Structure formats: C-alpha cells, structure tokens
C-alpha cells in the first residue's frame, strides 16, 4: 500500500519531530511563569485602579494606546526574528523558543490544540521581571509624576502576555467566545482574515500578531524585507533557511 506523505499538518514528519522536543521541564517553566505573572498582573492592576487619578484620564488613555502599539510592534519583531533567523539546534533558545515557530508553519492549527499553559507560557515569562519591578515601584517607589508611564508599561505587559492567546484565537474558527469575535471584528485584537496573509508561503510579511495594526504601514515601507536585506548583506545568512529546511523534512 502506498504511503501518503503529508505536505503540512500534524502528520508532517517535521511537525512530529518538533512536537517531541516539548518536554516536562519546559512545561514546568511555562506553568511557573503563568502563575507568577498572573499574580503580578492582578496585583498591579488592582493597585493602579485604587490609585487612579481621573484628572489624568486623557494622558492615561494615550499612554495605554501607545503601550498597545508597542506591544504589537514587539510581537512583530520577535515573530519576524524567530521565523527568519536562528535554528532549532541553537543551545537553550532553539528547542525552547524557536521550535514553536517552526512547528506553527508546518502545522498552523497546532496552536489550537495547545492548552493555555503551552500557548502562553513564553509570553508570560517575558513579562515576569518587568512586572516584578513595576510592583516594587507601585508599592515602594515614587511614581505619582509618571503615572501615565506606569499605565503604559502595564498595558504593554497585558498585551504582550496575551499575544499568543490572541494569535491562537486568530487560528480558531469554531467555538470562540462571543466577546473574542467582537474584538476581532472591531480589529481591537488580531482578526482571523488579517492573519491569513502571513500564512501564505514563504511567511515573509504581516508579522505583528497582537492587534495587527502595524502590519500594513510596516509592509508599505518594506520594514522587514529591508532588515533582512541588510542582515543578509552583512552576515551572508539566508532568511528563513531553517524554516525551509523543516518544511522540506518530508521530501
């Protein structure tokens, strides 16, 4: 009987191998990160609301908006870097952080089968230390003259923490909560149709996955392709070489 080779999806040989690299130690790190960061987000949010200054409402809303924009840009920067450069064989970061990006391009729906811990552990981990410092500032520091800056960093942390969950929702077409569909339709978070543009091979555009607001302007100025051109000229490294290698595992 002839064996049918999967071109993409969970039966792709590369996807099977990459899934095997998700180990118990990695999951433990993700669980701890989510518990600690969730506690810090809750504590800092409560303190900020208790000390809210209505006279600064306009500047706080502006700071929050900028925080969300920066989160969207950072999501694009990390996504672009992990998609385009590096290798799963790199020590520490390869299997821990680059691996999910390789798996996602081979099996785009894999993220919908990940639970909350696997989906969000890395993003929560990135916010743990900054939120810990924010807790110190809110409890023991002098921040009253920079209240808007604290709100900026808080919204930045919230949206960075939730970026991969938002990304997961953009791949989920059944059973989404109504409020998620509303947020997607209003383009407050990354819409499903918007994110499809990135998943056209060779996955070289529309990297911002928090709100997606910055994708169009960054594409118009050739931001990512310009960076790739400079890096390739300086180093000789080929963009997405490792990504292509994993995609061709079946051939």
UniProtKB/TrEMBL annotation:
The record ties this protein, via Pfam families, to: Lipid_desat (PF10520)
Q: Which GO terms describe its molecular function?
A: oxidoreductase activity
Q: What keywords appear on the UniProt entry?
A: Membrane, Transmembrane, Transmembrane helix
Query: What membrane topology was assigned to this protein in its record?
Result: Multi-pass membrane protein
Where, subcellularly, is it found? Membrane
Q: What is its main location?
A: membrane
**Signal peptide boundaries:** none
The answer to whether UniProt assigns keyword Repeat to this entry is: no
To which protein family does this belong?
Belongs to the fatty acid desaturase CarF family.
Q: What is this protein called?
A: Lipid desaturase domain-containing protein
The taxonomy runs: Eukaryota, Metazoa, Ecdysozoa, Arthropoda, Hexapoda
């Amino acid at each position: 009987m002839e064996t049918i080779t999967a071109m993409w999806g969970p039966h792709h040989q590369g996807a099977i191998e990459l899934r095997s690299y998700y180990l118990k130690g990695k999951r433990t790190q993700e669980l701890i990160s989510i518990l600690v960061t969730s506690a810090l987000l809750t504590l800092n949010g409560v303190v900020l609301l208790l000390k809210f200054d209505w006279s600064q409402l306009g500047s706080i809303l502006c700071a929050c908006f900028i925080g969300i924009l920066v989160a969207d840009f950072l999501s694009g920067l990390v996504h672009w870097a992990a998609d385009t450069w590096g290798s799963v064989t790199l020590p520490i970061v390869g299997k821990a952080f680059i691996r999910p990006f390789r798996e996602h391009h081979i099996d785009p729906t894999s993220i919908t089968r990940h639970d909350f811990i696997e989906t969000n552990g890395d993003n929560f981990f990135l916010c743990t230390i900054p939120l810990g410092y924010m807790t110190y500032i809110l409890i023991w520091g002098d921040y009253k003259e920079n209240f808007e800056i604290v709100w900026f960093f808080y919204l930045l942390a919230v949206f960075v923490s939730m970026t991969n969950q938002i990304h997961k929702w953009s791949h989920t077409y059944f059973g989404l909560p109504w409020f998620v569909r509303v947020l997607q339709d209003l383009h407050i978070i990354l819409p499903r149709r918007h994110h499809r543009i990135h998943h056209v091979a060779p996955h070289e555009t529309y990297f911002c996955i928090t709100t997606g607001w910055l994708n169009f302007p960054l594409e118009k100025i050739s931001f990512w392709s310009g960076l790739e051109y400079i890096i390739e000229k300086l180093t000789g490294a080929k963009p997405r070489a490792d990504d292509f290698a994993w995609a061709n595992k079946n051939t």
